[in-house]
Design a protein that fits this description.
Elements (H helix, E strand, L loop, with lengths): L2 E4 L12 H11 L4 E4 L4 E4 L2 E11 L5 H4 E3 L3 E4 L5 E4 L7 H11 L6 E3 L2 H6 L16 E4 L2 H10 L3 E6 L9 E4 L5 H8 L7 E5 L8 E7 L2 E9 L14 E4 L4 H16 L4 E7 L2 E6 L6 H8 L3 H13 L1
Parallel strand pairs: 1-2, 1-7, 7-8
Antiparallel strand pairs: 2-4, 3-4, 4-5, 4-6, 9-12, 10-11, 10-12, 13-14, 13-16, 14-15, 16-17
Helix pairs in contact: 1-9
């Protein structure tokens, strides 16, 4: 298969845990052609999605300078690729939105991972609310008063996060008695100008946030992200520790409930975040965890993901 990765600049990738790099390495091991670009290299000619992409040699190395070698930038149709992987990290801003409109014009001409319509329609924080029985109690509001009321209703501890947040940025645990609580709530809502999502705090968060990696609705790997000491977030890039995880009966229940819905929206490569058996986020823009899960499980998670792409591209 010939793959195009729409990614952030290669020299910015943190290779030790980067999932795009893991998928590129597996593609290279299969001698598949790998091409890369950034979103600004996408475009249209009439109704045809096009790109100025570079052929990319991928090696197993500790730094981008040694891991990648790129060739001459070439004008191509997206239809010339067997699969196009939209792996640009958030934020989902206006530039990202415009890129999804361009990718719309490649639908039916190549495998799009993930479908741009779903990338637009399914906010990673709000999408879980389609499944209220699987999620902790949640509200979305701009009102500081409503957040304080919700905090009282949930026993005095909530998690607040920006609706358009990513990578753990802007996530706070707000507890009764915290002298900073009012300031956190006011900051989170931008003094009433920004929607903020609040969820009941789940005590199991101290034991870790389980990332479940799905390929076409089937689990291919999992990793538990355990927060560092004195840290509420388990995100690995802010110091979280990766611990081996297994898919249990509750995880399977969650997966079975949402897999048909994900397929309906064309979301092929997805990361679910589960804390204490409750679904907290659905990651569709650039889900991570493949390298960590592979190291901990001793399995080739990237191979299972690419095998899925082969099947769907036929």
């Amino acid at each position: 298969m010939k793959l195009l990765f729409v990614v952030d600049p290669l020299d910015r990738l943190s290779l030790a845990g980067d999932t795009s790099y893991a998928l590129m390495l597996e593609a290279a091991a299969r001698t598949w052609p790998v091409w890369t670009c950034q979103i600004e290299h996408l475009g249209l000619v009439d109704n045809d999605a096009v790109v100025d992409a570079v052929p990319t040699v991928v090696r197993d190395a500790p730094t981008p300078a040694h891991a990648f070698a790129t060739g001459e930038r070439t004008f191509m149709r997206l239809a010339e690729f067997d699969a196009v992987l939209m792996r640009k990290d958030p934020p989902v801003d206006v530039n990202y939105l415009h890129a999804t409109w361009i990718l719309d014009h490649a639908r039916g001409k190549t495998l799009l991972v993930n479908d741009p319509r779903g990338l637009r329609e399914l906010n990673e924080h709000l999408a879980v609310l389609q499944f209220p029985a699987l999620t902790p109690p949640t509200i979305v509001t701009r009102s500081a008063d409503k957040l304080r009321e919700f905090q009282a209703q949930q026993g005095g501890a909530i998690v607040v996060k920006p609706v358009d947040g990513y990578g753990g940025l802007g996530i706070f645990v707000v507890r009764d008695g915290d002298p900073n609580a009012s300031s956190i709530i006011e900051t989170s809502t931008g003094a009433g100008t920004r929607w903020t999502l609040a969820q009941k705090y789940l005590p199991d968060a101290v034991n870790g946030d389980k990332r479940i990696i799905l390929a076409d609705g089937e689990p291919v790997g999992a990793v538990l992200r355990v927060p560092a000491s004195a840290e509420a977030r388990g995100n690995l890039h802010v110091g979280g520790r990766a611990v081996k995880a297994t898919i249990d009966a509750r995880d399977r229940e969650i997966i079975d409930a949402i897999a048909p819905w994900l397929r309906e929206h064309g979301q092929i490569f997805v990361g679910l975040d589960v804390i204490g058996g409750m679904l907290t986020e659905i990651n569709i823009t650039s889900p991570t965890g493949v390298r960590h899960a592979a190291r901990l499980d001793g399995t080739n998670v990237a191979a299972r993901v690419l095998d899925c792409f082969v099947r769907l591209a036929k």
